[in-house]
Amino acid sequence: MKLTRWALPMLTATILAGCGTTSGNFCDVASAIRPSVQDDMTDGTKRQIVSHNNYGEAACGWRR
Fold first, then answer.
1. pTM of the entire structure?
2. Largest Cα–Cα distance in the chain?
């Protein structure tokens, strides 16, 4: 398989882009999840949203 000149640099850039990290703590980078009425969610997804939002209330002082 013959690679063009730009294929290897593009592949490398794509792989390295996935290595980025977000700086800051949870309260700096997260926000409450507010699903729409039209969202079709499983019970597991609902539990995860409630857990996320409860943690945000306790740790960051989010309000409902």
1. 0.61
2. 57
